[in-house]
Design brief:
Layout: H1 2-13, H2 24-40, H3 49-55, H4 62-66, H5 74-85, H6 91-112, H7 116-131, H8 135-145, H9 148-152, H10 156-167, H11 189-205, H12 208-219, H13 222-232, H14 246-261, H15 267-285, H16 290-301, H17 304-320, H18 324-350
């Protein structure tokens, strides 16, 4: 598993400025290029790697882009059509999806994060889980992340178009539509924690499976009913997500810290905090099945990679009123502890590799 550890170690090193000429943008782009190459050149996976290579090999016309038996969304089919059109190696489908994913995430971080290198480190769990395992979902997540700009600017059609583009790679991206409707909602910390505790009680006493299946049945959505019911009863995907899982409580901790430190939050900060709350609620409400929980929550969890640096910046701003030197010292201490915490978090994901398989280059 050392190659995965290598990626984490490099991202950890990039957090620190070792000389005056060490510009953050150079360090950030170095990390982004590393993540792209590491994912694009992989040649093994317990996930969808082999499926991605084989499913689209017969897509040689625009007609087949929309009418095929790949069971993949149109985005994947269109990319493979272009690859077949130019007679490129099948590995290019992996490279193309990783390029789109890393490019969109890079743009998202550059637009909103006050600490770009830290955001790249925070992105690693999502990277190991999706870019290295289910690249199609990774593309959908990264494209949907860019929709936040149109959400807080209240540009509804652009927002919907961005989500539509994301859904071309994975239909689950439609869950990100909820982001548009929480922009101007200000939720008190006490109320937010009440939602979290209430969700935990609901999932233990009632459960989401029964509710969702009844909705699908009542609405006549038989295909969705069959598909969801299949996941529910699957031995591979149907196992539950524990409410004591540290990933859930880390999300809740970030939410509490953000609410306490961002008392006069700007519009975008408030939106990021609301997304963090929604992330916790989705993880709880869909905790009956780990696979569904992770897949849905990832579209909201992605915003935490810029929320954490925003919270750290607030610590600096709050201390600046007393003493600049004290503010810098306090910020550096908290930032270092945060880097250590999320480096350990990334190591936990890296220790699993991709389905427990050693990394190999495709060639």
């Amino acid at each position: 598993m050392w190659p995965y550890f290598f990626v984490v170690i490099i991202l950890f090193i990039l957090q620190f400025k070792f000389c005056d000429k060490s510009r953050e943008n150079v360090r950030f782009m170095t990390g982004a290029v590393l993540l792209f190459l590491f994912a694009a050149l992989r040649g093994v996976s317990n996930g969808d790697y082999t499926v991605y290579l084989e499913r689209g090999r017969d897509i040689d016309s625009l007609y087949k882009v929309f009418h095929n038996n790949t069971h993949m969304e149109v985005g994947y089919s269109m990319l493979y059509y272009v690859i077949n059109l130019f007679r490129l190696p099948s590995q290019c489908i992996i490279m193309a999806m990783n390029l789109i994913s890393i490019t969109c995430i890079t743009r998202f971080i550059k637009m909103y994060s006050p600490n770009q290198c830290l955001s790249l480190l925070l992105f690693l769990p999502l990277y190991f889980q999706f870019d290295m395992h289910a690249a199609r979902t990774a593309v959908a997540i990264s494209i949907s992340a860019l929709s936040i700009t149109y959400a807080y600017r209240r540009q509804f059609f652009r927002f919907c178009f961005t989500i539509f583009l994301a859904s071309l790679f994975h239909q689950v991206a439609v869950i990100a539509l909820v982001v548009y409707f929480v922009v101007n909602i200000h939720i008190d910390l006490t109320i937010g924690m009440g939602f979290i505790l209430g969700s935990m009680c609901f999932i233990k006493l009632v459960g989401m499976d029964r509710l969702i299946l009844e909705v699908f049945r009542f609405a006549g959505l038989n295909s969705f009913y069959v598909r969801y019911n299949g996941y529910v009863n699957s031995e591979d995907f149907g196992y539950p997500f524990s409410l004591f899982d540290p990933r859930l409580w880390l999300c809740i901790l970030v939410y509490i810290a953000a609410k306490l430190l961002c008392r006069n939050a700007t519009k975008i900060e408030n939106l990021l905090i609301n997304c963090c709350l929604l992330n916790a609620l989705v993880m709880i409400l869909f905790s009956e099945h780990t696979f569904i929980c992770y897949r849905l929550s990832a579209f909201l969890n992605v915003y935490s990679i810029v929320l954490v640096p925003v919270v750290l910046k607030k610590i600096y701003c709050l201390r600046c009123g007393r003493s600049v030197n004290a503010a810098i010292r306090s910020y550096m201490e908290v930032n270092f502890l945060t880097v250590l915490l999320f480096t350990a978090y990334a190591f936990a994901y890296a220790s699993q590799g991709v389905g427990g398989l050693d990394y190999k280059f495709f060639f």
